Amino acid sequence: MTRHECLSILATLLKDEDLVVTALGWVAGEWHSVRPKESNLYQINMGMCTPLCLGLALALPHRRVIALESDGSVLLYLGNLTTLANKRPGNLTVIVFDNQCYLATGGLPTATAGVTDLAGMARAAGIRDAYEVRELGDFEEQARAALGREGPSYIVAKVDPTGKRMSTNIDGKEAKYHFVRYIEKSEGIRIIGTHAMKMD
Amino acid sequence: MKTEYASIVYDALKEAGINFVAYLPDDQIHDAQKMIVEDAGFVTVAVANEGEGVAACAGAWLGGKKPALIIADSGFLVATWPLASLTVSYGIPILVIIAHRGEVGDRANWRFITYKFTTEPILHALQIPYVRASKPEETKEAITGAQLSASLWQHPVAVLLSGEILRD
């Protein structure tokens, strides 16, 4: 099972308005290639993707939020599993593409290549719906279930240590403005420029 | 922090429009944190690590909230990399309230001299503008001003609470 295959399935399960945030690494370009929507935010630095999605999900509880994580990223801020478990954002699904290595930076192994079980850790932290999947059919079933239930849901997809280096053709600041303007438009709210300047 | 000083911080955050707070409890500011948690007008997240608090605030801002991170000096040091790589790099306006110890004359023990040498130089290095509030009467303006600048500049801005405002 490859991450790209999983992403291609996930793209068919989402609505345009579902908010998807990717971690750093090749997942960003791969996701952009299968679902190039303005409701995507790409390349959130190591460890920050899930906690950022927690804040986003709490701010917009009526929107589905999906974090596309990696094992290396999750391992950097494991304490966040406990925050997620206790805060219980019903609209958040975290999908960890666990390739058991730091693929984009040379392929050295992560702890999940050894004895560490991320889904088990998530369950022990208190996230009830945390599952590991190894087959595409199981991935689709769990992703569909996660998107249809009150979350949080946590799916650890064991994928091959392969990927494609594809560009999103967008830098971080540009991505921020695109995403915020999309939220403003789709929510009918103003985020940037809420303080009017007084020229005196 | 005296209860009346905690109220000043709490009231100033409300006036600044803050409606999302990530926090990790600190001895000097937990009274203000408790007032915020008990107010349903704030969405609050108790984090296990201040770095994830930075990210939660960033996500909340992207979703239309006005976020603040309320932490101690030690937590600020923990949060430096997320502040640098997320809020400074992307230009995400979060208010960072730091209960700052270790000033000359502070009744803090040997451990706190670390923060005399680190907090302000790191704020400078990260290019996070900040304002200091030591007296109760200057705290409200410091907090509301910092939030105004964060919003206008699209950039994190910090408030260092120190001295009298933190005293029991």
Briefly characterize the structure.
Chain A is an alpha/beta fold and 200 residues long.
Evaluate the radius of gyration of chain B. Answer: 14 Å
**Main sheet overview of chain A:** 6 strands, parallel
Strand residues, percent of chain B: 15-25%
How many helices of chain B does DSSP assign? Answer: 7
CATH architecture of chain B: 3-Layer(aba) Sandwich
Q: Gap between N and C termini of chain B, in Å?
A: 4 Å
> Shape of chain A, please?
globular
The succession of helices and strands of chain A, N to C, reads: HEHEHEHHEEEHEHEH
The CATH homologous superfamily name of chain A equals Thiamin diphosphate (ThDP)-binding fold, Pyr/PP domains
Fourth-tier CATH superfamily name of chain B: Thiamin diphosphate (ThDP)-binding fold, Pyr/PP domains
Instruction: Give the uncertain stretches of chain A in residue-range form.
Output: none
Count of individual helical segments of chain A: 8
Low-confidence stretches of chain B: none
Amount of beta strand of chain A: 15-25%
Q: Which assembly state applies to the chains in this document?
A: heterodimer
Number of domains of chain B: 1
Large-scale geometry of chain B = globular
**Might you state the CATH topology name of chain A?**
Rossmann fold
Q: How would a textbook summarize the main sheet of chain B?
A: 6 strands, parallel
Task: Detail the topology: elements first, then pairings.
The complex is a heterodimer of chains A (200) and B (168).
Chain A: H1 3-13, E1 19-23, H2 26-34, E2 40-44, H3 49-59, E3 65-70, H4 71-76, H5 80-87, E4 92-98, E5 101-102, E6 108-109, H6 118-125, E7 129-133, H7 136-148, E8 153-158, H8 172-187
Parallel strand pairs in A: 1-2, 1-3, 3-4, 4-8, 7-8
Antiparallel strand pairs in A: 5-6
Chain B: H1 3-15, E1 20-23, H2 30-37, E2 43-46, H3 50-62, E3 67-72, H4 73-78, H5 80-90, E4 95-99, H6 113-126, E5 130-133, H7 136-153, E6 157-161
Parallel strand pairs in B: 1-2, 1-3, 3-4, 4-6, 5-6
Helix pairs in contact in B: 1-2, 1-7, 3-5
